[in-house]
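hey
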């Protein structure tokens, strides 16, 4: 193992939190699985039950006298482990049971029942779900927090303000209060407008009391009061007026109006601001209400829980009073995160609500005496709501499993899209932009490049989501100008009140600041303050960026656009056969590997007593053996190889939680997404034009960038109308050679090497019967039923695929835990492993956003080589650096060279990196050592090298009047070296940057994209070839391509492209036959799409006829109307 040396001067006071906590903690809080029923808090699942129950039937004027109440819920143990669920295409879930109590109001009779409400998916210990055999992640959603907001719009010279009261999504109507052009104050509920004074009269106020509320700003409400027709109305009259506005079709009655207003704004089941909404409203308006509704109903009268203070605030804002401000809706204090627990709780609530409606119906219609909780409850709505959410919601996503980092990143993702969120088309620039409150909460760098830019973001490394759903960032408390180690987490609104110093502010040993003026932040702006004015200090320089971004060394030297690409491309790096942790890392690699859940951690402390490729046994001091089973060659969602390898040997002493086996893309527990490669940055005969990459065949021979990919293929045997399909070795019309790798059941053997077109699963199905002739019928009646014809419908290896058979699995209907689709009797699944070497066309990238495609693989003897004869392995284009402004890669290359020569690995944390002087010092040590070694050997300076040094002096790269040794030292100190052309042996004219860079092979591999077709399937209607590799389609000659051929006058080429190579059925058949027989290809006939066009015109009632040169009608259809 290489020794690790760390740069960086800043001591971090807290470690990174568990990086998957946002998922795990949220679902634990939702389930409260390990909390006894009486002690459960009113959140998550418990809150959903408490909200819907008790269910009684009081509607439609009938009292059934039944009440169904909820006592407690329990969760059974999952039937299968996550591994079994993946193997058998099942969902990892647990049965949800509720203890319900049915009370007869008339007789006082009580019936209790344990009712099964469906299966609830359970989160695995890594923070994902297994649904129908596939790993899925529920992405957290960011939305506008419920509460009250004041916004403005320009009008004339000034502004006009609006107040909006927003409840939880789908938990009540939005309420808006706004002035119109005549300065009259209107209130809008469900898009229906009424004067604001009307709601105040419902609270029992008269004009005088209303004027008292707005003392000092009476002029702003006079217009409204003058227009108010209900000025002398009683509470009941005001209620009826309000009811006629809100429900214009219904006959106004006082009790109906009271019930309606109650259900609209005062019923906790129908209107809910949520804890967050109530907190926001109280803090904005200085209230202390506890209720999550907007109105209350006490002693036969409606009471206000926040509407009147909202009106007062709005009037003050419109009047320009001091200390009243409008809200910034993009401020993270006004946006909250809905994590997994809340999203699933919403679905349970929807399902329970639908179930409750069914219960009420059965209470009304059924016999009350025979009713039991079991008979009243139907769990189908709950099951359907959960299935819909986990299977089809925009926030339930197929887990990104290319490598450990992509898994971790997927779990920490935050999306503004999804149900109740924004849509790509409607989201403007402001929502997507970086806001000052993102600091330490949301990463300003990591986001997609396309239409989702800024809508999908990532949680910053140290950020956490609090109980109310707001993101908090950690800060160190500063007392009397001294920085303490006490860490405080703050939401964005609280942070706005303080002055915060940066993490790299120089400190003395006692925690006091070592300078008199300190650069700090206040409301996002940099300010210079004295030490006494500082309230808090950042905990770490990397707290502003996300985990993938914090893996980029020298990030501060990279342009943000390229850092964004670097962050995103690390998640596309394919795990390689041999892993190699970076020589230049940032210190976060180990935590990513550990928290991604792909490495194996020891469950106990003790000694390793047994190790093989499949299991590790650790024995504790008490002599108890703990077995750890490794996953070997598992296929990930993206077909990469999820494989664990032991890194301990028998006799090793182990502590609990220590890494004992590496996962994919990890080396000794450190994340290892790529390889440390000796690179040169120089042009190479135009082969590295436009970011292309030239590399040495050595990398291919030594399997440096070789990866294993596992494909899955399935074949089902179903019952059809014609008879049952069969999985068998007995296939008509095939030679023994074609069946050589099949076992007696017709399934390919493990370890066989297969290529395109080979049979994986032998499969036959019956041919459709044609009506037999009288002779056949006679023969059949004499000789009995002859064996009906079967056809070969075997599963074969698709074009372009192949590899080694890794394993086969066979499922039969009736096997324990096996669920097959209706009509399917058995299914065979075959896994094929492919070993993919690096080839021209594969995409490589580094961590700084420098990406390119391999253009040429040269023999090592043709590559540029160093003075000692070492050929470089890879050549990058120098033009890819200055304009992209990602200089971090140059510093990484220099420091990588130092690491390579010194035999160590360096850790250079983000925003606290190795300085240029330190790197120069390391390179200087290497230069001194190399030059003294040359002198000891008595080596003279190569003539070719002397020429390059002379030219470098003329160009001003090194100073004049230096001795040869000093010139060499000067060049080597600058991280450059003299290189020689491998083909000619001449020195390359200028000194070249050579060093070690960390390079990754990305998921975009040319083998997945290469595709060619001569003949193949055609579309049914237009008869044109299908498109795309998956359909084995052809290349489309589109409108613009036709123009290109027209421009060159290539009439015949164009004609055959549009006819016999496309949808001229007769012409293409004749052409194929002619080519096979070696004859000339005949004239094309009429394309099918033209016939379709004619038929479509006929369907419009237009009589379209085709005429020849002599105006004779040509019939292009046969008697049945089909094209001929």
């Amino acid at each position: 193992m290489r020794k690790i040396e760390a740069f960086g001067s800043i001591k971090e006071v807290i470690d990174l939190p568990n990086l998957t906590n946002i998922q795990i903690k949220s679902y634990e809080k939702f389930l409260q699985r390990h909390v006894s029923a009486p002690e459960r808090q009113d959140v998550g699942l418990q809150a959903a039950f408490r909200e819907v129950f008790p269910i009684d039937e009081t509607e439609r004027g009938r009292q059934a006298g039944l009440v169904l109440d909820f006592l407690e819920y329990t969760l059974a143990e999952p039937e299968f482990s996550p591994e079994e669920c993946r193997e058998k295409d099942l969902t990892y879930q647990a049965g949800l049971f509720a203890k319900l109590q049915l009370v007869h109001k008339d007789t006082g009779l009580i019936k209790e029942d344990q009712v099964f409400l469906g299966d609830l998916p359970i989160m695995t210990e890594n923070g994902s779900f297994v649904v129908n055999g596939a790993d899925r992640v529920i992405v957290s959603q960011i939305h506008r927090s419920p509460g009250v907001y004041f916004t403005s719009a320009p009008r004339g010279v000034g502004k006009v303000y609006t107040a909006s009261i927003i409840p939880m999504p789908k938990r009540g109507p939005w309420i808006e209060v706004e002035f119109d052009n005549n300065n009259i104050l209107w209130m809008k509920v469900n898009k229906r407008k009424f004067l604001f004074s009307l709601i105040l009269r419902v609270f029992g106020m008269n004009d005088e009391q209303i004027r008292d509320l707005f003392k000092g700003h009476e002029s702003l409400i006079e217009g409204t009061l003058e227009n108010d027709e209900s000025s002398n109305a009683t509470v009941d009259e005001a209620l009826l007026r309000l009811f006629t506005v809100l429900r214009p079709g219904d006959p106004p009655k006082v009790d109906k109006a009271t019930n309606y207003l109650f259900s609209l704004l005062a019923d906790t089941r129908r209107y809910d601001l949520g804890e967050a909404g109530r907190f926001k409203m109280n803090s904005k308006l200085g209230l202390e209400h506890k209720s999550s509704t907007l109105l209350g109903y006490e002693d036969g009268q409606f009471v206000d829980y926040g509407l009147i203070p909202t009106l007062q605030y709005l009037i003050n804002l419109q009047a320009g009073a001091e200390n009243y401000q409008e809200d910034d809706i993009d401020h993270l204090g006004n946006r909250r995160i809905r994590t997994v627990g809340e999203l699933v709780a919403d679905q349970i609530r929807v399902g329970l609500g639908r179930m409750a409606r069914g219960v009420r119906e059965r209470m009304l219609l059924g016999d009350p005496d025979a009713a039991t909780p079991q008979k009243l409850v139907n769990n189908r709505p709950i099951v359907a709501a959960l299935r819909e959410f986990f299977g089809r919601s925009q926030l339930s996503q197929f887990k990104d499993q290319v490598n450990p980092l992509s898994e971790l990143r997927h779990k920490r993702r935050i999306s503004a899209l999804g149900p109740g969120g924004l849509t790509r088309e409607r989201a403007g620039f402001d929502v997507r932009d970086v806001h000052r409150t993102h600091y330490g909460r949301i990463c300003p760098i990591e986001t997609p490049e396309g239409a989702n830019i800024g809508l999908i973001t990532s949680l910053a490394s140290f950020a956490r989501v609090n109980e109310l759903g707001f993101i908090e960032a950690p800060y160190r408390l500063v007392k009397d100008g001294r920085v303490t180690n006490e860490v405080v987490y703050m939401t964005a609104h609280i942070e706005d009140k303080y002055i915060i110093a940066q993490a790299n502010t120089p400190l003395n040993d006692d925690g006091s600041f070592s300078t008199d003026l300190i650069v700090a932040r206040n409301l996002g702006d940099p300010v210079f303050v004295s030490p006494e004015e500082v309230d808090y200090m950042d905990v770490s320089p990397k707290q502003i960026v996300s985990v993938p971004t914090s893996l980029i060394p020298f990030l501060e030297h990279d342009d943000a656009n390229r850092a964004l690409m670097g962050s995103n491309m690390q998640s596309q790096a394919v795990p390689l056969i041999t892993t190699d942790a970076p020589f230049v890392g940032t210190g976060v690699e180990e935590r990513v590997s550990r928290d991604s859940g792909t490495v194996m951690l020891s469950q106990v402390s003790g000694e390793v007593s047994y190790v093989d490729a499949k299991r590790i046994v650790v024995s504790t001091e008490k002599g108890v053996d703990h077995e750890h089973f490794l996953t070997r060659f598992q296929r990930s969602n993206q077909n990469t190889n999820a494989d664990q390898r032991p890194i301990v040997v028998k006799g090793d002493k182990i502590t609990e939680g220590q890494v004992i086996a590496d996962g994919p893309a990890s080396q000794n527990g450190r994340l290892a997404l790529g390889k440390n490669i000796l690179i040169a940055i120089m042009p190479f005969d135009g082969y590295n034009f436009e970011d292309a990459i030239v590399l040495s065949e050595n990398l291919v021979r030594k399997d440096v960038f070789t990866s294993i990919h596992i494909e899955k293929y399935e074949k089902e045997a179903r019952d059809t109308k014609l008879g049952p399909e069969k999985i068998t070795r007995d296939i008509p019309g095939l030679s023994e050679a074609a069946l050589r790798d099949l076992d007696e059941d017709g399934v390919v053997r493990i370890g066989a090497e297969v290529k395109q077109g080979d049979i994986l699963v032998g499969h036959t199905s019956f041919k459709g019967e044609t009506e037999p002739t009288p002779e056949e019928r006679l023969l059949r009646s004499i000789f009995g039923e002859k064996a009906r014809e079967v056809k070969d419908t075997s599963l074969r290896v698709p074009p372009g695929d192949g590899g080694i058979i890794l394993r086969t699995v066979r499922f039969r209907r009736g096997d324990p835990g096996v669920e097959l689709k209706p009509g399917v009797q058995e299914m065979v699944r075959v896994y094929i492993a492919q070993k993919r070497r690096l080839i021209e066309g594969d995409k490589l990238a580094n961590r700084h956003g420098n990406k390119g495609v391999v253009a040429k693989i040269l023999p090592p003897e043709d590559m540029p080589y160093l003075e000692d004869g070492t050929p470089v392995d890879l050549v990058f284009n120098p033009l890819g650096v200055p304009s992209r402004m990602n200089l971090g890669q140059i510093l990484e290359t220099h420091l990588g060279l130092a690491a390579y020569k010194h035999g160590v690995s360096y850790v250079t944390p983000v925003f606290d990196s190795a300085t240029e002087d330190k790197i120069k010092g390391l390179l200087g040590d290497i230069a001194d050592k190399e030059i003294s070694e040359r002198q000891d050997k008595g080596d003279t300076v190569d003539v070719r090298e002397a020429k390059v040094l002379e030219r470098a002096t003329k160009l001003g790269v090194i100073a004049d009047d230096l001795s040869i040794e000093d010139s060499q030292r000067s060049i080597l100190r600058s991280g450059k070296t003299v290189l020689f052309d491998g083909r000619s042996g001449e020195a390359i004219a200028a000194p070249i940057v050579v060093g070690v860079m960390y390079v990754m092979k990305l998921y975009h591999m040319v083998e997945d994209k290469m595709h060619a077709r001569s003949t193949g399937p055609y579309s049914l209607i237009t008869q044109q070839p299908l498109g795309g590799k998956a359909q084995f389609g052809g290349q489309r000659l589109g409108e613009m391509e036709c123009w290109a051929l027209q421009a060159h006058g290539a009439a015949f080429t164009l004609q055959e492209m549009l006819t016999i190579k496309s949808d001229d059925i007769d012409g293409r058949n004749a052409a194929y036959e002619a080519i096979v027989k070696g004859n000339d290809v005949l004239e094309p006939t009429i394309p099918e799409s033209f016939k379709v066009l004619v038929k479509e015109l006929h369907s419009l009632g237009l009589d379209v006829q085709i005429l020849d040169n002599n105006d004779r009608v040509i019939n292009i259809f046969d008697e049945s109307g089909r094209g001929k």
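The domain at 1012-1114 is CATH 3.90.1800.10 (DCoH-like). The longest strand covers residues 707-720.
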